[in-house]
Amino acid sequence: MAVFTPLSETQVADFLERFDAGTLTRLEGVAGGTENTTYFVTTDRRELVLTLFEQGEHEELPFFVELLDYLDEHRLPVPGPLHDRDGTALQSLAGKPALLFPRLPGKHPKDPNLAQCRALGDALGRLHAVSRHFPGHRPNPRDLNWLVAMHHRVLVYLSPEDQALMKDEVETYQGVFGDASRLPQGALHGDLFRDNTLFEGDRLGGLIDFYNGCTGDLLFDLAIVINDWACDAQGRLDADRYEALLGAYQARRPLSDEERKVWPMMLRLTALRYWLSRLLVVYVDPPAHDLTPHDPQQFRSILLERLQHGALPLPERSQP
């Protein structure tokens, strides 16, 4: 979240007239983030978040609206976008696509405890259970096909050892997932790191920033979560967080036999996904705005840890 397009109070007050959301009383630009302009908007009736989309494929925004509407209708803790008086969510403001959301309660957990891990696992399990019936479709933009196509672009910047590591991993994934039977499919968040969640104490206030949302292997989404939520600073899996999150998840959506079989490899694939995407930002395709890229070495360390130690055993169910 950041402010790349300045807005006046008059502009936002006029914008709010399209909605049944009250009258503007306060406007606050939100610093930080990476791609979009974000404001906190306070009216005489509620707290809102206004997002202007600065980059990306704008033609894909209707998919995100459809996905958030669907999850909101199924009572998932997501910011279902506000629709205007004519029933339209996606708007234009200052020449940019714009969406208005309810402001969800809470803050990002830096060091999640076991209760927060269980809450996140429960919510993600619910999300995946209902998302299997979501009618929309957007292919996963960071799946194995992307890894195969894009990893060549960073090899020249890597040591010979890391070049061999990356090429060997991609070849291995092709062998495993190319021959695997089709894994359970559905809608994914696609980037559910700790900073894309909000908590009030141990209570999950919301899952936010669905702009990597797509449809594909549900296990891909779960592996991204575990590599962040159940991982220490050295990339090692924390057994207690791992079991709390996965146990709560499987109480909502038990993993299939095929998912359990390829689980260790999916943890490796999603670690390489972030190592590669961060290398691309550093060396090949820097962001349009003056922002500090994430460190690629974090996910190189996670990948090496998964290679050396594999995955912890998968729990069957959460404990009552």
TrEMBL record:
Keyword set includes Signal: no
Superkingdom of origin organism: Bacteria
Source organism of the structure: Bisbaumannia pacifica
Catalytic activity annotation: L-homoserine + ATP = O-phospho-L-homoserine + ADP + H(+)
GO biological process terms held by the UniProt record: threonine biosynthetic process
Listed NCBIfam families: PRK05231.1, thrB_alt
Family: Belongs to the pseudomonas-type ThrB family.
Top-level EC class: transferase
Protein name: Homoserine kinase
This enzyme's EC code(s): 2.7.1.39
Keywords, comma-separated and alphabetical: Amino-acid biosynthesis, ATP-binding, Kinase, Nucleotide-binding, Threonine biosynthesis, Transferase
One Pfam family recorded for the sequence: APH
Matching Gene3D superfamilies: 3.90.1200.10, Phosphorylase Kinase, domain 1 (3.30.200.20)
Domain Aminoglycoside phosphotransferase: 27-255
Keyword Amino-acid biosynthesis: yes
Recorded GO MF terms: ATP binding; homoserine kinase activity
Pathway(s) this gene product operates in, as recorded in its UniProt entry: Amino-acid biosynthesis; L-threonine biosynthesis; L-threonine from L-aspartate: step 4/5
